[in-house]
Amino acid sequence: MNTLKNALTIFCLLILFCGCSIDDDTPPTSQEEDLELLQELFNEITLMVDEPCTDETAWEFVAYGSKACGGPQGYIAYPTTIDVEAFLLMVENYTTEEAIYNANHGIGSTCDVPAEPIDVICEDGAAVLVYE
Known about the structure:
This protein has helices spanning about 1-15, 30-50, 85-105; strands spanning about 60-65, 75-80, 120-125, 125-130. By secondary structure, the protein is α+β, with helices and mostly antiparallel strands. The chain has one domain (about 1-130). It is globular, with a radius of gyration of 16 Å.
């Protein structure tokens, strides 16, 4: 399992550092193609944190995404047992790409701000964000 995660991490870092961006000098893409790229990036993020939660002290959370009106889309829990630096770079890349997507395609959103969690707990093997 760790070999798969290491390979996925390396793949994602290659994407991040090779300039594979929806805002580079490549020919224009459709909104659907850009949305598909965003979904692939988010899927890679969620794959990295797909671990059973057995010790809530080994979990943290981070904001991800970019609402068109400003602020994050939400928060995601992650285990500190993964390559945290690579994970946070992936989240940062996703957030940047979503902001670019929103600007390039005139995306609108609600201007509400998602509540920030106060903690992460384990419930039935899953990490659950706790809110006040």
